[in-house]
Amino acid sequence: MTFGFAPSSAASTSTSADLSAASANPLTRMLEPAEWAAAGIPLLRNPREVVSGLHSRHHPRPATAVVAVLDPDERVCASASFTRRPAPADGWMFRNTLLAQLRRVIPHDLRRRTPVRTAVLLYCREGDARWTEEDGAWMWGLRDACTLHGLRCGAYITLTRDGWQVLGEGRGGRRPNADSSPEPFGISEVPPPLPRTGGAASEVLRRAAAR
Fold it and tell me: Are 49 and 191 in contact (CB under 8 A)?
């Protein structure tokens, strides 16, 4: 036997109305930069290598999204690119599209207690690197798609004519960008060797690799 309190009809009506309003309002299905930063998204060790690798694989142009799954060593296990349809930005629609792409290229990890692979999203678009509501909808969609596919939610990266930017982290660089030609695939996959000594030289190289 189960004991509890039955909600009043007024409360039920109010809850249903609130849920219906939320489902009908795309603005409720987006994340702002502060929410994204507070979500504990894992940082990429070498974001430029990830961006360059995906750029070399998929040659994205504006309105192209690239979703990729990384293993614990940040190697790309699978990736897929697709063109965003001309429709209002809606995190729920983006979630469904991303989930369909993930299911197409890699099996889910829902049987694992904790995710071991991470999904990242690179979106090539017009405009500058500043956050937009469209970016917020992609963030919401990526986070939800990762949950439904048993993956960790990773970085959301924009690619514009000014360069690339990891939103919520403040890391970015001028190349690759939306107009640049892809680097040779082998070069983008192999990081440059770092010096064994520490000091100022190591710090300069570390900053240069993050650009």
Answer: yes
